[in-house]
Specification:
The protein is mainly beta. It has no helices and eight strands. The protein has one domain: Immunoglobulin-like, CATH 2.60.40. The protein is globular and about 30 Å long.
Length: about 80
């Protein structure tokens, strides 16, 4: 699982969740570790989260047939 670089804004982050081959991952789950904040990517793998400035651990998850895939990145 891969993702396009996140764009930082005063209002949050946004990007596209993709496979290692660059194909979008529709309906992947994006969550901020340790919070109830999260979203689901759309059919094209795009997502957007509104956040206050800070350091976050972002968790990307996607169900494929098996296994359940998770990738965690730290956003500063």
């Amino acid at each position: 699982m891969a993702f396009t670089p996140l764009l930082a804004a005063a209002f949050g982050i946004k990007g596209t969740v993709k496979t290692s081959k660059g194909e979008p991952l529709p309906y992947a789950t994006i969550a901020i570790k340790g919070t109830s904040t999260g979203t689901i990517a759309n059919a094209e793998g795009r997502y957007e989260l509104t956040l206050a400035p800070g350091k976050y651990e972002v968790i990307f998850q996607y169900w494929v047939v098996l296994p359940f895939r998770t990738k965690t990145v730290t956003w500063r």
